[in-house]
Amino acid sequence: MWCLYAVLSALFLGVYDVCKKRSLSGNSVVGVLACSVIISALLLAPSLLTGVVPHIDARTHGMIFIKSLLVLSSWLCGYIAIKYIPLSIVSPMQASRPMWTLLGALLIFNESLNLWQWLGIAVTLGSIFAFSFSVRHDKTEQSDNAPYYIFLILAILLGAACGLYDKYIMRSLDRNAVQVYYTLYQALLMALVWIINRFIVNAKNDRHPVSFHWRWEIVGISIFLILSDYVYLKALSDPSSLIAVVSTVRRAGTIIPFLYGIIILREKHIRAKVLCLLGVTLGLVCLLFGTL
Predict the structure, then answer these.
(1) In principle, which of 121, 135, 167, 199 could form an S-S bond with 243, CB 3.0–4.6 Å?
(2) Torsions phi, psi of 216, nearest 5?
């Protein structure tokens, strides 16, 4: 059952990525992220009054706060990347995140995979390598935005670290407490980041300020992230779940923003990207077959 929860999380995550892309177009990265996180916190805050979230001690709060820092750092880097790099490049490259999670799962949690799961990992890795090779020749999409690939790489590595940390804390913590409190902590942290960006960074760059514009897709970011996180944490709460598989399956959500980038945004150089996505999808199918 935990694998099906991972699939649901992937679908919600795909729509979430599309909402991010639409919200960030010509918009302030910090403004969009701060607004979406605050909305998420407001949506989850009432659960503290209904008894859904249990009382937790100071140590647990500290563990959840660390998760908030990891997630927020990954998001900031990811939002900057997705703003300046075509979505059909960002999404397949983010599919490499489970590979780093797999390495950590093998070394830290001693997870073992069957033949089909290993085959899925191998196919996915091969597809990503082929895609990375093709991008080097894609000068139209790489030349002007090359510096932002650093943020994309940081987002991938931090996201993988967060996945491993999630597996660690979900062995003992209540999933509702984790989701609610880490969202509230993120809202506080983003408020601080927004203040610093608004009054310090923008003050030094007042010639070219990036203003914030409200878009209803920002609400979509909050809603679909809450849904994705809920079923994701529910999957990890199962003692038999494998973080290497859950993390990889979640990347199947890249299909949704990939199609959006091609059909709606009409992004170019599609052939190599389609082959990469087909390879990643085949790898995910193998993982599912080996898990169900």
Answers:
(1) 167
(2) -70, -20
CA distance 141 to 25: 16
The answer to whether the beta carbons of residues 21 and 82 sit under 8 Å apart is yes
CA pair distance 89, 91, nearest whole angstrom: 6
3-state secondary structure of 145: coil
How many angstroms separate the most distant Cα atoms in the chain?
Answer: 57
Compute the radius of gyration of the chain from its Cα atoms: 19
Asked whether the predicted pLDDT for residue 124 surpasses 80, the reply is: no
Give the SS3 label for residue 52: coil
N- to C-terminal Cα distance for the chain?
8
Cα 30 from chain centroid? 16
Sequence-distant (6+) residues with CB within 8 A of 284 are: 120, 124, 248, 249, 251, 252
Tokens representing residue 10 in the block: 């992937």
What is the full DSSP assignment across 250-262? HGGGGHHHHHHHH
The pLDDT mean for the chain works out to 82
Query: Do the beta carbons of residue 278 and residue 131 sit within 8 Å?
Result: no
Q: What sign for the dihedral angle of Cα 58, 154, 72, 4?
A: negative
Q: What is the pTM of this model?
A: 0.80
> Which of 112 and 144 is assigned the larger pLDDT?
112
